[in-house]
Amino acid sequence: MLHFSVQLIIAVVVSSFPGHSLKEKLHGGQDEPGRGAGGQGMMAIIPLPRLSVMVHKLRAAVLAGTIALTGAPEPALSADPPPQPTGIPRIGGHFSLMTADGTEVTDRSFAGKWLLLYFGYTFCPDACPTALNMIAEALDELGPLAERIQPIFITVDPERDTPSVMAQYVKAFDPRLIGLAGTAAQIAAAAKNFHVFYRVRQLGNQEYAIDHSSYIYLVNPDGQVVERITSNMPGHSVAAELKRLIQ
Predict the structure, then answer these.
(1) pTM higher than 0.85, yes or no?
(2) DSSP conformation class of 214
(3) pLDDT mean for each 10 residues of the chain (247 residues)
(4) Per-residue confidence (pLDDT) for residue 118, from 0 to 100
(5) What are the C-alpha distances in Å from 155 to residues 117, 128, 136, 190?
(6) CA angle 159, 160, 166 (to 5 degrees)
(7) Residue 84 DSSP one-character state
(8) In this structure, how many other beta carbons lie within 10 angstroms of the beta carbon of residue 137?
(9) Which residue, 35, 82, 150, 220, has fewest beta-carbon neighbours within 10 Å?
(10) What is the DSSP secondary structure assignment for residue 217, as one 8-state letter?
(11) At what angle do helices 2-15 and 48-70 cross, to 10 degrees?
(12) Strand pairing partners for 210?
């Protein structure tokens, strides 16, 4: 097959010059002065229109050879860049969890409210208390506007953080804060929808910690995440951002 393709390429190029040999067309039928008849080192001067025809025919021959060898056409060439994906992956969605009294709460239970969500656990030594304190400070800074926001703390530790444990924990930060717990499957589903990472890390002596991402999610009344806030911002900066987005 390769021998056939090479012959085909040569035949097409040579056929561009009927009645003359390829050498005659390239060198006007004469050897360059000072060179032997073998023509080594000679440079041909070819008119641009004729050269363009030669290039197109040569490319067509290469395409034919490619098809003969592989059975597939040569990929199309384009000067345009490939289309880029638009938009960002959707963050947020449905969750179904429980309050301290066992009431089921979903993402649609707070009609007309903006939600301020944080995922963590009550045994968290630093990141979670920092984030929840910041949320409380931001709510105080907002004043009456805070009434339009429902702050929620969702545990990623279903084994230790029962609904009653969560209720007691959030009271230490702000009375407006709701703590939600659930089964391992319910928590995993909620975390997946909000692209939350968490992983149990064994400490020994049957103790463990949980490594987790630490973002605060602002969800509008339509259920869309409009902002993902880092949890180490000062409360007044978060309040200013919330005011900008909610008003």
Answers:
(1) no
(2) -
(3) 43 44 41 41 42 45 46 40 43 84 91 95 96 96 96 96 94 96 95 94 94 94 91 91 90
(4) 97
(5) 11, 10, 18, 10
(6) 120
(7) P
(8) 18
(9) 82
(10) E
(11) 160
(12) 200
The sign one gets for the Cα dihedral 210, 214, 220, 226 is: negative
Residue 153 CB burial class (10 angstroms; 0-12, 13-18, ≥19): buried
The two structure tokens encoding residue 183 = 């089964």
Going from the C-alpha of 2 to that of each of 7, 9, 75, 158, 237, the distances in angstroms are 9, 11, 19, 66, 69
Q: How many Cβ atoms sit within 10 Å of the Cβ of residue 66?
A: 15
Residue 193 identity? N
Give the tokens for residue 197.
Answer: 């990472």
Cα gap 27→56, rounded to integer Å: 21
Residue identified by tokens 């995440």 is: 225
Q: Tell me the C-alpha distance between 151 and 173, whole Å.
A: 11
